[in-house]
Design a protein that fits this description.
CATH topology of the largest domain: Growth Hormone, Chain: A
Number of domains: 3
Number of helices: 18
Helix content: over 70%
CATH class of the largest domain: Mainly Alpha
CATH superfamily of the largest domain: MFS general substrate transporter like domains
Shape: globular
Distance between the termini: 33 Å
Radius of gyration: 22 Å
CATH architecture of the largest domain: Up-down Bundle
């Protein structure tokens, strides 16, 4: 009889923590532009359209980064793509700090976007494939935790650099330091990647079973490794998965679940708040300094409730957290819309927004990444995640571009805008309740096989 599984959580924990640095860089690169943008606008004399393009240029890089990372990681390995991501982040940081023209700046930010798009695919997949099933949810949440820590700390990095000089110094030099300092964690990520192994499931897929066995033995000993290897071998195909298989009868349902979860996670308006929170509070009548302090609270609540997700995702399960979180989102966003409709602001508006952030951080923030990395078989997981991450970045771009127009429209305005986001959250609640399966406590091979058993 096979030995009972005895997982070495320290090994998986370390590998997941290293990979989560990719999430930290994701968060840093996403948030740093908020502090640099004002000074960049003055330094390069940007008009409003160019200012918007400066903020969106990284998102434009995310889309091709996500599209091509899946097939590349399936072919060349998860770890190799993580090295590429680290190099892209480092190159973007350096090039963003030294541009002479606006076009050079856009190109540098686009390179960073390629890294964000690729890491948003490869990091969750790698963590899922390296983690024991009973810890996979918690370890998978590390990626989202890295993102929110990166966003939160970047806020203070920007403030620290702003305090190093006057307005003139920040306009000529300060914004360069904000962007350029990303090279430090990027190089740290690059060096730490030498200490983690390749995904054992990818190694098995490529016929490198002795190497996969060594990785699995580090997780739980020889007995566990033999049992896992047998399960992976039974589920594996000698062929590399094709993109067209995603639309087959076996895998269309998980593809639909992945795409809609990613779309719902953005069209609920999370990045309208993350990108424009200061403007939202100012439009409700708050002073500029007060609006900034409110944004700090958003970052803190986002961080704290990500730890709630880590604590409960493997205990309560993915689906219960999604159900509760999306329902609370619906109520919170409806309340935000009502606050604007009745011209209320102050602590009431802040509390409603913080309630939404808390609900999102414990459910729709981390769990779609976890589920999407779990529900596909090994041979097409990378390509499937490409489709999912393409969806999330395309949705993110749409939200980032449309919120200012919706918010300032005479016919729509902030109240109706947040009611639209509330309706999306209600749709996600119904969708999760009816369509999303529970995956906690199941191996990746069991989850992949379950789709083929459906009539």
């Amino acid at each position: 009889m096979p030995q009972p599984a005895s997982y070495s959580i320290q090994f998986a924990l370390f590998a997941a923590a290293v990979t989560a640095i990719g999430g930290f860089l994701f968060g840093y690169d996403t948030a740093v532009i908020n502090g640099a943008n004002t000074y960049l606008k003055t330094h390069m004399q940007l008009n409003p359209a160019q200012e918007g393009l400066a903020a969106a240029s990284a998102i434009l890089g995310c889309i091709p980064g996500a599209m091509f990372a899946g097939c590349l990681s399936d072919r060349y390995g998860r770890k190799k793509l993580l090295f590429v991501c680290a190099l892209l982040y480092a190159a973007s940081a350096l090039l963003s700090a030294i541009p002479r023209t606006f076009e050079q700046f856009l190109a540098a930010r686009f390179i960073g976007g390629l890294g964000i798009g690729a890491s948003s695919l490869v990091c969750p997949v790698y963590i899922a494939e390296i983690s024991p099933e009973k810890w996979r949810g918690r370890l998978g949440s590390f990626f989202q935790m890295g993102i929110v820590i990166g966003i939160f700390l970047t806020l203070f990095v920007n403030r620290l650099i702003q305090g190093m000089g006057d307005e003139i110094w920040n306009t000529t030099t300060g914004w360069r330091w904000m962007l350029g300092l990303e090279v430090v964690p990027a190089m740290g990520f690059l060096l730490m990647l030498f200490t983690v192994p390749e995904s054992p499931r990818w190694l098995c897929q490529k016929g490198r079973e002795p190497e996969a066995l060594l990785v699995l033995e580090k997780m739980g000993g020889a007995g566990h490794a033999a049992a896992e290897l047998a399960a992976i071998r039974a589920a594996a195909s000698s062929e590399e998965g094709r993109f067209s298989e995603l639309f087959s009868r076996d895998y269309f349902r998980p593809l639909l679940i992945a795409a809609l979860l990613m779309a719902f996670s953005q069209f609920c308006g999370i990045n309208a708040i993350m990108y424009y929170s200061t403007r939202i509070f100012e439009s409700a009548g708050a002073a500029k300094n007060s609006a900034f302090q409110s944004s700090v609270w958003i970052g803190l609540i986002n961080l704290v409730f990500t730890f709630v997700a880590i604590a409960f995702v493997d205990r309560a399960g993915r689906k219960p957290l999604l159900v509760v979180g999306s329902f609370i989102q619906t109520l919170a966003l409806a309340s935000v819309g009502w606050m604007f409709y009745t011209h209320r602001s102050g602590i009431g508006l802040l509390l409603c927004i913080l309630l939404f952030i808390a609900a999102f951080a414990m459910a729709m923030g981390p769990i779609p990444w976890i589920l999407c990395s779990e529900i596909f078989p090994n041979k097409i997981r990378g390509r499937a995640m490409s489709a999912a991450t393409f969806t999330i970045w395309a949705s993110c771009y749409i939200v980032a571009q449309t919120f200012p127009m919706l918010n300032e429209s005479r016919h729509i305005g902030p109240a109706l805008t947040f009611w639209i986001y509330s309706a999306v959250s209600l749709a996600s609640f119904v969708f999760v309740l009816l369509m999303v399966p529970e995956t906690k406590g199941r191996t990746l091979e069991e989850i992949g096989a379950s789709w083929r058993r459906r009539p």
